[in-house]
Amino acid sequence: MKIGIAQINSVVGDFPGNAKRLIAAYRECIDQGAELVISPELSLVGYPPRDLVFKSSFVPKCLQALDYLAGEIREIPILVGYVDHHHPRQPGKPFRNAAAWLENGSVRHRIWKTLLPTYDVFDERRYFEPSATCQPIEWNGKRIGITICEDIWTEEYLDRPLYDRDPIKELSEKGIDMILNLSASPFHLGKPQLRRSMIGAVAHKHHIPVVYCNAIGGQDQLIFDGHSLVVGANGRINEQFPGFKEACKVINPFQTKHEEAVLDDCDPSQLYHALVLGLRDYAQKSGFSSACLGLSGGIDSALTAAIAADALGPENIHGLTMPSPYSSRGSVEDSFALAKNLGIRCDEVSIRAPFESIKKTMHSLFEGKPEDVTEENMQARIRGLLLMALSNKDNHLLLTTGNKSELAVGYCTIYGDMCGGLAVISDLPKTRVYEVSRWLNREREIIPWNTIDKAPSAELRPNQKDQDTLPPYDTLDAILELYVEHHLSTDEIIARGSDETIVRWIQRRVDLNEWKRHQAAPGLRVTTKAFGIGRRMPIVQRFSS
Questions:
Q1: Which domain holds residue 299?
Q2: Which pLDDT belongs to residue 160?
Q3: Are the beta carbons of 164 and 158 closer than 8 angstroms?
Q4: Which of 187, 369, 458, 511 has its CA 20 to 30 A from that of 251?
Q5: Residues with active-site annotation
Q6: In a shared domain, residues 111 and 168
Q7: Strand, helix or coil at 533?
Q8: CATH code: domain of residue 246
């Protein structure tokens, strides 16, 4: 049996565009000899559609597009993900997360998703009603179990048992020859390896091949990495699709290979390519073809600029270096060196004059009070004003450049360096920023080595260094991972050997700065627990952890 896997990039709500993508992928697979084609979860809709499904015309237009798509399909079937109505006279949520088997101009079968994730970044029980039964489909002498994303995830690979049903077991007990899974599984570091292990275990346990088609593309803060899989009945990987790009390929799931496919390591390249894809799709799907950002001569803005140049093309990136009275000339020179290496535009606009003007304007109110963080924040907010002006004038997407470590403890200025439409590296801890930057320079200098090697500084007061305010970044990031991603209490972290004073300082800073993060630009998710999505903390609270 030859099955075509259409690993495509859908756009949420673009039914005509998504239908065209599906038709093009379907025909490409047929040209390769496919007898059946499979596409990702909600491929006709885009994932996740969120509250768009409640708009009165959304699901009717989806079903209209499904009918159109069915009319383009002939004797070779295709499995398409879409949103359907739940029966209005039955209790439950109003919609179904569904898959349609299209064949000979009509919808031959409709399959409902059984397990509806409502944790982390998922909220499917808000919209969808689960399937009551799991039934195989008979086709060409084969009994096929069709599942949708979460349906294939087993208890061993979830944080805890979440469901009282096992769709794969239910299908297996009814006798099936293989499993097809339509998926929209978002990326975080280590996720491709997790999927490989889980799907391999499922195939081996039930002695059936599994064809797993995952979405690719960026949608708001989520990044879908592809890495579709074909796993033999022995649990070994027969085929793995590339990550972070569209691909169509025909495979035979019953043909056993003697060697497993070469697997990608969870290295800095995964993070880099994920961020490039996330930025490219966020910009282009939002109608932007260019971006601007502030270049400080530091590593965060340098890495953001490199990602932007790769995502949108260097000719479409405009950098602005904005020295203050406390900026070193070396930082300005590093900004221009970066721009030259990347081939992007960089202009210099000093903030000295507006800074002095604002201080003069406020003199009568501040008289007798020493300069402090107020004056530091003034400089950051002047820069934010200039960057927003450039964004408005030239219709650039403004990129913020702060990393996860800074955002976690509030080492950033609201309405200043936090201004922007997308926070590209806001889920990348500082230690990861260095790791990805060094990987980027593996063959030639892209980010100036001076930028990587020098001590990080905001340069908002004389001789300022980040480590004057923050713990060493390796210490900070290790504690943040335990506190933010693993939800450990301060006492538990201290018991693991961390300094009590540092732990309690970090905990307090993380909790106090929730209000800043609620106003931050959306950021691209690349870890298991990103700020802004999947982590929903109250701003006002008195819980002491």
A1: 272-468
A2: 67
A3: no
A4: 187
A5: 41, 113, 149
A6: yes
A7: strand
A8: 3.60.110.10
